[in-house]
C-alpha cells in the first residue's frame, strides 16, 4: 500500500549516511558548541566538497594567500611562515569557506589578529603554527570545525593532503577546486638527513613522501594534513612540488597543541 511505501522510504532515509544531517540548521555563532559541529570524516560531506572546515585565506586583491582549517567559531589554524608576510597589512585579507550551500555569498570573515609563537623564526619549521582570530564567525550552512590530532603520526601512516596548486605554478596552473590525495608519513630521521644543510627539522615537524609525479603533488602553505577526521599536520616550509624526491614538511599538530590551547585560553580570559 501507499502508506507502507512511505514508511519504507522514511526508514531508508534514517539508514542513509550522516551526509543528510550535514546541512546544518543554522549558522555558527560565537557561542556555537564546537563538539556539536565537528566534521565526521570524508563520508559525511554534503555535495562535491571536502568538508566545511577546510578554508582559504585570501589576499585583499582576491589572490590566494594560505590554506587553513576551522578550529573554533573565532579561530582558524594555518602556518606562521605562510601568514606572516600579511600580518601588518590585514585590510581586506579574508578567510573563506570552501563548502558552499546553494546561493550562499556570505561565508567569509575578516581577520582581527594573528598569533604566532615567540620562538618561531621565519623560514624555519620549528613551531610553525599561527592561530588566526576572526572578526566574526564564518557563516554557511555547511561550515563546521575539525578536531585536533589525537593520533601520533608514525612512519608509514596514510594521511590525506589537500591543496589547490597555488604554490606550484611551475608544475601546472592552480585549480579553483580543492584537490586531495593520500600520502605516507616518512621516517623522521631519514627525512632530517635529506634536508641536512638546507633546513634544520625539529620534533614539531613531520614529513610525508610526495607522489613521484609533480602534478599529483599537493602542497600549498598552511593547507591541512588529516588522519581520519583529525587535523594532524599543516603545510610548513622548505619543500615544494617541483622536486618530489624531497619530502613534504608539515607542522606536527600533536607537538603544537599546547600552544593552540594557550592562545584559546588567553583569549577566553581576556589576557590577550
UniProtKB/TrEMBL annotation:
The keyword Chaperone does not apply. It is an enzyme of class 3 (hydrolase). Its EC number is 3.4.21.4. It is found in: Secreted, Extracellular space. InterPro entries: Peptidase_S1, Peptidase_S1_PA, Peptidase_S1_PA_chymotrypsin, Trypsin_dom. One of its GO terms (biological process) is proteolysis. Residues 1-21 form the signal peptide. It catalyses: Preferential cleavage: Arg-|-Xaa, Lys-|-Xaa. GO terms for cellular component: extracellular region. Residues 38-268 form the Peptidase S1 domain. GO terms for molecular function: serine-type endopeptidase activity. Keywords: Disulfide bond, Hydrolase, Protease, Serine protease, Signal. The keyword Signal applies. This is trypsin.
Amino acid at each position: 500500500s501507499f502508506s507502507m511505501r512511505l514508511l519504507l522510504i522514511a526508514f531508508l532515509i534514517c539508514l542513509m549516511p550522516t551526509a543528510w544531517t550535514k546541512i546544518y540548521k543554522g549558522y555558527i555563532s560565537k557561542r556555537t558548541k564546537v563538539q556539536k559541529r565537528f566534521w565526521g570524516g570524508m563520508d559525511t560531506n554534503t555535495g562535491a566538497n571536502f568538508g566545511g572546515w577546510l578554508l582559504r585565506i585570501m589576499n585583499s586583491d582576491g589572490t590566494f594567500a594560505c590554506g587553513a582549517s576551522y578550529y573554533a567559531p573565532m579561530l582558524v589554524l594555518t602556518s606562521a611562515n605562510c601568514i606572516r608576510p600579511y600580518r601588518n597589512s590585514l585590510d581586506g585579507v579574508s578567510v573563506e569557506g570552501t563548502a558552499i550551500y546553494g546561493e550562499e555569498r556570505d561565508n567569509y570573515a575578516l581577520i582581527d589578529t594573528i598569533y604566532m609563537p615567540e620562538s618561531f623564526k621565519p623560514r624555519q619549521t620549528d613551531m610553525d603554527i599561527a592561530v588566526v582570530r576572526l572578526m566574526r564567525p564564518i557563516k554557511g550552512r555547511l561550515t563546521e570545525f575539525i578536531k585536533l590530532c589525537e593520533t601520533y603520526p608514525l612512519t608509514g601512516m596514510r594521511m590525506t593532503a589537500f591543496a589547490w596548486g597555488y604554490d606550484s605554478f611551475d608544475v601546472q596552473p592552480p585549480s579553483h577546486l580543492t584537490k586531495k590525495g593520500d600520502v605516507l608519513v616518512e621516517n623522521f630521521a631519514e627525512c632530517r638527513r635529506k634536508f641536512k644543510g638546507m633546513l634544520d627539522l625539529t620534533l614539531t615537524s613531520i614529513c610525508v613522501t610526495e607522489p613521484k609525479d609533480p602534478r599529483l603533488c599537493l602542497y600549498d602553505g598552511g593547507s591541512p594534513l588529516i588522519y581520519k577526521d583529525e587535523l594532524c599536520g599543516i603545510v610548513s616550509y622548505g619543500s615544494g612540488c617541483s622536486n618530489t624526491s624531497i619530502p613534504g614538511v608539515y607542522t606536527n599538530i600533536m607537538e603544537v597543541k599546547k600552544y593552540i590551547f594557550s592562545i584559546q585560553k588567553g583569549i577566553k580570559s581576556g589576557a590577550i
